[in-house]
Give the backbone structure.
Amino acid sequence: MKLNEEERAQDLNPLLQTGWTHDADRDAISKVYEFKNFIDAFGFMTRTAIWAEKYKHHPEWSNVWNKVDVTLTTHDHDGLTELDIKMARKMDALAG
């Protein structure tokens, strides 16, 4: 189920303070993670992939050298859900 206004204030706003941006047209959040090198970026993607499988929620992402560009939205619900918030928090934790 899409996030309601109260959930957005409580859950989304703190993520916006940590570098996530909200695309209102898609109702998606995005962030670019930057690492020391390609190995660290790829390691982050590998660790994230394991959690994405556990959550059954997969990011849209791309990697160029030391950067990983991520977008999260729940396609089944046409917008942000608690799964996106959960995945964003996990990715922030994995990125250190």
Q: What stands out?
A: Residues 11 and 85 are 7 Å apart (CA to CA). The first strand starts at residue 21 and ends at 23.
